[in-house]
Amino acid sequence: MDCITVITVMPDNEIIAHQRMAMLELLCKYIRQRDLTSLQEQLGVLLIENWLTPSQLEALGRRDEAQKIARNMLNAGLSAALVQQLTGLNANDLAAQAE
Questions:
Q1: Residues sharing a CB contact under 8 Å with residue 15, sequence separation 6 or more, in sequence order
Q2: Which of 32, 48, 56, 85: disulfide with 52, CB 3.0–4.6 Å?
């Protein structure tokens, strides 16, 4: 089994115990899920316990903002290739915004 397969079947509370790696592992587990509100409690625990570095927290905010901007650009009629180039999102992320 590869590491992604293991993460997808691992219970969230076990992932949370991995402390600093937990954020990355949770995001890997739920990468295909459009609405991450179900992760709010787990992510909150990670933030409260200071298991995230400031750079990790900043990266999450930038990614979220890029996804919002991409959605608006696509809705405004810009081509997917141009939106991908301007936002730095990969094709999978962009496809999720187009749905």
A1: 7, 22, 25, 26, 29, 42
A2: 56
Nearest to 78 by CA among 62, 94, 58: 94
pLDDT digits (tens, 9 = 90+) for 32-86: 776 677 777 777 777 767 677 778 777 777 888 888 888 888 888 888 888 888 8
Tell me if the pTM is above 0.85: no
User: What would you report as the CA-atom Rg of the chain, rounded to the nearest whole angstrom?
Assistant: 15
**Which of 67, 65, 16, 18 lies closest to 43 in space, CA to CA?**
16
Which residue, among 9, 6, 40, 5, has the nearest Cα to 23 in the 3D structure? Answer: 40
